[in-house]
Amino acid sequence: MIFVRTAQGFAPGGFFRYDIMQPHARAASTDGSLRVLIADDHPLFAEALTLTLEADSRVEVAGHAQNGQEAVALASELRPDVVLMDLDMPVLDGFEATRGVREVSPSTRVVVVTASAAPGDSAKAFAAGASAYLRKGCITTELLDAIFAVAPATEQTVLRSGRTGPRRGRLLRRLAARTIRARLAFQ
To answer: Are 143 and 59 in contact (CB under 8 A)?
Structure first.
């Protein structure tokens, strides 16, 4: 199940709400890819996530933090577009790390990727400043959909890559949002 924060808030209880975020002025990277920081204390999961993301040419893994405190420091230094944040980490948990990331890098979006099934964790994550919430059992396309749905440089990435123009890009994003909503409505 995916939850995405929108300007109107988020819908608990299994709803997926999608809203195109406003792009910011900062370029995603020199080649147009989105820069992602992985914050997870399990090396095997983090490595698998890195390999999965790097298979997509639109994504660049900027770094890996092994605890919440390191995630905040790396977000401040690297200024990634998106941080994939685990909730259960040493030194500083994912909730506090999310708050810290949003403070040191306000344009960075946080996507929580967790194994936690605790009731209320998604609401607590959104209250901390997360833009999306996924369970670790999600599939790659759901993860990528969430990353690109919340990424502040989505429109710039599409335009800079030369894949499409502004009008067609808006149409493709609307179609993607409908596809995501339809697919998740049947889960």
So the answer is: no
